[in-house]
Design a protein that fits this description.
It is built from 9 helices and 14 strands. The protein is of the alpha+beta class. It folds into 3 domains: about 160 residues, Beta-Lactamase (2-Layer Sandwich); about 100 residues; about 140 residues, Heat Shock Protein 90, CATH 3.30.565.
């Protein structure tokens, strides 16, 4: 929609402005051309008027006449559109061109000073409109004295025709100029909006983890916006760090009390107070579940877009830890991951995901656990495969649900759900499968980092 596109609105506004401006310019040029031709025509009529004045004389009978008439043949052709006329005051018509035939030019009743030149638009023969140039002079005594009024006129249809021809030749050129200006306007809009496209590309790079800030490589009009966005990103990073620090403080603050409680439960069991020990164990398990839930929520709300983690390094560290547990010590661990491969996630979050997956695999595997990673387009798929009993496909949704349990072994039922939540917080996903007896695969899909 045009209303939703700044580019189209600018192009439309530019095109309309160009067309209006060129339309006004074409009209103005036509008017100027018409006035110019009219002035040139008036100048030519003044020359004829002077020739007519110079030709005034008296005939043998002493009457005033035009002894030397203008030699333009149109004055001799009836209704040719070019006329002259001489009148005296108050006697009236003295002489006129044959082109007037039996008509007389009706001149306006204006007061003419001697020798003054006046220009009028008057009615002519056959309903035509004429451009008339007249002058009033006082004759010398040898011509009988008295004022005389001389006028030369020409049909304005000639000017109209010339203006029409000029406009007809002007319009194609105006159309070509309009086309070129619209193209130039489109280029101008494209160049002018290019910084906004650069801002969008930089924001996409920030979102994908390829960049941290918009930077300063923008025009002066866009730079304040980029600076505000960078300030917003910096504020968000501080909030992320604060959230992570609070989550870490929460984990460390509750870790020691839970360990003390676990020791007390073991001592109660040794004393034979199993019922109280069981109650406390249930309470401890509930507390641990709430802690893990809040930690996962903190991670979900405090991801950093520019983070990157080396998969091989993080996976190797987690395998060493899980491999030392009683369940992991008896297993064969295989890892096939390119050391240069990175994903867009905080290293601690990746360690949390892999820790949950590898701990789950160690508890269910019979002999072997394999960790691998491969590139699939812009994604990286990290797979954890064990030779355990697998999960029936119909129970996969339950295994990924928070607190979902499909066995009666140790654990809270939060491991896979927490791993899934963390992956989703980084625009990734955790998928289980293929899963079958003797094979269980957990695949983590994350965006590749540069």
């Amino acid at each position: 929609m045009i209303a939703g596109s700044l580019r189209l609105r600018l192009l439309l506004a530019g095109a309309v402005s160009i067309l209006i401006a060129l339309g006004v310019a074409a009209f103005g040029l036509s008017v100027l051309f018409e006035r110019h031709v009219e002035r040139r025509m008036a100048d030519d009529l003044v020359v004829v008027l002077d020739r007519l004045l110079a030709g005034l004389d008296r005939d043998a009978e002493g009457k005033l006449t035009v002894a030397d008439t203008p030699d333009d043949p149109r004055f001799e052709r009836p209704l040719s559109g070019l006329f002259w006329q001489v009148t005296t005051e108050p006697r009236g018509l003295v002489d006129r061109s044959r082109s007037l035939w039996d008509t007389e030019l009706a001149l306006p009743d204006d007061e003419l000073s001697e020798g003054a030149l006046h220009q009028h638009h008057i009615d002519g023969p056959g309903g035509s409109t004429l451009l008339a140039v007249e002058r009033r002079v006082v004759l010398p005594a040898r011509l009988g004295g008295g004022p005389v009024r001389l006028v030369v006129a020409r049909d304005l249809s000639d000017i109209t025709a010339a203006t029409r021809d000029f406009t007809g030749e002007l319009l194609p050129f105006v159309g070509l100029v309009a086309f070129l200006l619209v193209i130039a306007s489109a280029v101008q809009v494209r160049v002018g909006l290019a910084p906004l496209a650069a801002v969008r590309a930089r924001l996409a790079a920030i979102r994908s983890g390829e960049a941290e800030r918009l930077g300063t490589a923008f025009p002066d009009e866009v730079q304040p916006l980029a600076a505000e966005v960078d300030a917003l990103l910096a504020s968000r990073d501080r909030q992320v760090e604060t959230a992570r620090a609070r989550a870490s403080d929460l984990a460390h603050g509750l870790k020691t009390p839970l360990q003390v409680l676990s020791g007390d439960i073991d001592r109660l069991k040794q004393r034979g107070e199993t019922e109280i020990a069981a109650d406390l164990a249930g309470l401890g398990e509930t507390m641990r579940r709430h802690v893990e839930r809040e930690l996962a929520r903190a991670r979900r709300n405090a991801v950093a877009g520019s983070a990157a983690a080396a998969i091989a390094e993080v996976a190797g560290r987690v395998v060493k830890v899980v491999g030392r547990t009683p369940a992991g010590d008896a297993l064969d661990w295989e890892m096939a991951i390119d050391a240069r491969l990175k994903v867009r996630i905080a290293p601690d979050d990746l360690a949390e995901i892999l820790g949950n997956l590898l701990d789950n695999a160690a508890r269910h595997a019979r002999e072997r656990v394999a960790v691998s990673a491969e590139v699939d387009g812009r994604e990286v798929i990290i797979r954890v495969v064990d030779d355990g009993p697998g999960i029936p496909p119909e129970l996969v949704p339950q295994a990924l649900r928070r607190g979902g349990r499909i066995d009666t072994g140790p654990g809270t039922g939060l491991g896979l759900a927490i791993a899934s939540d963390i992956a989703e917080a980084w625009d990734g996903a955790l998928r289980l499968g293929p899963t079958e007896p003797g094979r269980m695969t957990a695949a983590v899909h994350l965006h590749r980092a540069p």
